[in-house]
Amino acid sequence: MIDRRDPTTPLWRAAVLLRVITLVFAAAIVATHQGEYDRTWLAWVVIGAMAAWTAASAAHYLRAGHGAPWFIALDVVFCTAVMASSRLVLTPEQLAGAVPLVPTVWVTAVVAFGAVRAGMLGGATCGLVISAVNFLVRERVDVDLTRDMVLLVGIGGVLGLAASTSRASAARLAAAERIEAAAAERERLARGIHDSVLQVLARVRKRGREVGGEAAELGELAGRQEVALRALVSAAPLESAGGSADLRGMVQVLATDRVQISVPGTPVVLPEETAAELSLLVREALVNVERHAGPAARAWVLLEDLGSEVVLSVRDDGVGMAPGRLAEASAQGRLGVARSIRGRVESLGGEVSLETGPGQGVEWELRVPR
Amino acid sequence: MISVMVVDDHPMWRDGVARDLAERGFDVCATAADAAAAVRVAATVRPDVVLMDLNLGPDSGADATREITAALPQTRVLVLSASGEHDDVLQAVKAGASGYLVKSASAVELEDAVRRTAAGDAVFTAGLAGLVLGEYRRMSTEPSPPRLTDRETEVLRLVAKGLTARQIADRLVLSHRTVENHVQSTLRKLQLHNRVELARYAIEHGLDEKP
Predict the structure, then answer these.
(1) How confident is the model over A151-179, as pLDDT tens digits?
(2) Is the per-residue pLDDT at B28 higher than 90?
(3) Which residues of B touch A303 (CB under 8 A)?
(4) Residue A199: pLDDT band with limits 50, 70, 90
(5) In this predicted complex, what is the ipTM?
(6) What pLDDT is attached to residue B200?
(7) pLDDT tens digit string along A282-318?
(8) A residues 190-209 near B, CB within 8 Å?
(9) What is the average pLDDT across A56-78?
(10) On chain A, which terminus has fewer CB atoms closer than 10 Å, C or N?
(11) For the ranges A90-104, A169-183, A266-280, which has the lowest average pLDDT?
């Protein structure tokens, strides 16, 4: 009946308990004023209706999913009717004086329900509606009634905040648990792969190279798989939490037998979009290396977290280009990439430097502030 | 002749590496398959270089590295791991390893790395340099962190970008030896800081007193 994953379940139970306790209180008040009312019989009928509604609403609020907004609206209408009925029960003198309305504090529970369902705004709104009905039934505004209003609206707000906070922290906890489970699974896989497949592939590559000929080619193929597999299993988890992500995992998967990735040992956490954009930029720079740096060129990516900024360096040992040949480079489409990378880093508030010379490869440095 | 001990729990790999090294003129004086055996055997044969795998079943190669370098100051540990360049590599280096090589390195690279390790140089991959840089930056928020000089940071960044010691020497107009010394010094400070931290931890928790 009760959903274990719903963090607001205890709050719903407490609000139902509040309604039961305040029902007993209301009945006791009516018993005290017995005979002084205009219509005592009607007072007891109202108490009876309140008891029936307490039972019916408890069944609704305690089931899985708890209070539906339409039901809470209905509840507010019921409370309004019960308060309004006091005009027929109480004498005009009682209404003008300090004798409580028939439901007394029984109506506060609906403020709690509204708050737990819809947060601060819901709680405060329910409090305002109940207070407004109170003013209308009494046909006056005074210090006592205003104090009740402040209490109702304030408590509604505070309870609403508590409910939304507990929902948010439960959601964060669940996300953290999911990431942890994924990381544990990955760890298990990685261990298995390290102990078996990677060892064999590394050995095949090494022996193949030494034996030469066709075996060297097989060894080379095995080596490529080894590097790719190692990058996959050792990359930091890609799952993100709360809109931020660890940039390390996103660049680590770019490792190949030609591309080495160096990252710090601790997570480099950035807003998810910034991290995704930066990893795309690195990817583009690497594609550029593949196209223009020459067939034997290798590349290195270094990720550094300086606290106030994140630095990504992409260096290759390819043919590079002479400063005077920018026009030609432009014609080859290299400058287009440079301009696009520059523009995108600048839109992240960062800056780009590009160093190159003939035979000296190309070195990019992207600096993006936190 | 440089004596080498090979520690790896994978028999095929261990024997292959031992054979390679023997063919290239090294004295492979011992092999071990787990951390406890590695510590025990190393104390007896006192090799010049220990080639240490980090995935030793339930044991950590980093702990074995710490014990070996503490007991045998003359012995240098070179980590040879299939593991990605990750935290366990950093732990081993902080524990006293003087370098790191991935298992996909060629026999020539391995030979070169073992010789340099025996000669007292630090063997860095680009990945290890990235980890060490990150570690110094992580520690910079601690109360009394070890610090790199600007030159050391500069050199380490170039190593992390894949430049060889010779290329770095050319670019910074330094001697090859000076570059090697800078690289070594980044490791030495890290290891020294780690030992001080361990000792402080032991004293604070009363672990230094014999029961």
Answers:
(1) 999 999 999 999 999 988 888 888 778 77
(2) yes
(3) 130
(4) confident
(5) 0.87
(6) 82
(7) 988 888 888 888 888 999 999 999 989 999 999 999 8
(8) 191, 194-195, 198-200, 202-203, 205-207, 209
(9) 91
(10) N
(11) A169-183
Using the Cβ of A263 and the Cβ atoms of chain B, whether some distance falls under 8 Å is answered with: yes
Mean pLDDT of A343-367: 87
Q: Domain range for residue B179?
A: 124-211
Question: Is 70 exceeded by the pLDDT of residue A73?
Answer: yes
Q: Is B153 part of the contact surface with chain A (CB cutoff 8 Å)?
A: no
Does residue B61 sit in the same domain as residue B113?
A: yes
Domain ranges of chain A: 9-173, 240-370
Residue A132's SS3 state is helix
> How far apart are the C-alpha atoms of A116 and A131, rounded to whole Å?
19
pLDDT of residue A330: 59
What strands lie across the sheet with A299-305, from one edge to the other? A259-262, A299-305, A309-316, A362-369, A351-356
Judged by CB atoms closer than 8 Å, whether chains meet at B126 and A235 is answered as: no
CA separation for the pair A157, A179 (Å, rounded): 33
First-last CA distance in chain A: 47
In this structure, whether the domain defined by A240-370 belongs to CATH 2.40.50.140 is answered with: no
First CA to last CA across chain B, in angstroms? 44
Domain boundary among B67, B98, B123: B123
Mutate to test the interface with A, among B94, B103, B124, B171 (most CBs of A within 10 A): B103
**Whether residue B48 sits in one domain with residue B12:** yes
With CA atoms as reference, the chain B residue closest to A258 would be B162
B15 token code pair: 């024997």
Residues whose CB is less than 8 angstroms from the CB of residue A227 and which lie 6 or more positions away in sequence, other chains included: A255, A256, A257, B104
Among B88, B123, B158, residue at a domain's last position: B123
Determine whether the interchain pair A199/B82 forms a contact, defined as Cβ–Cβ distance below 8 Å.
yes
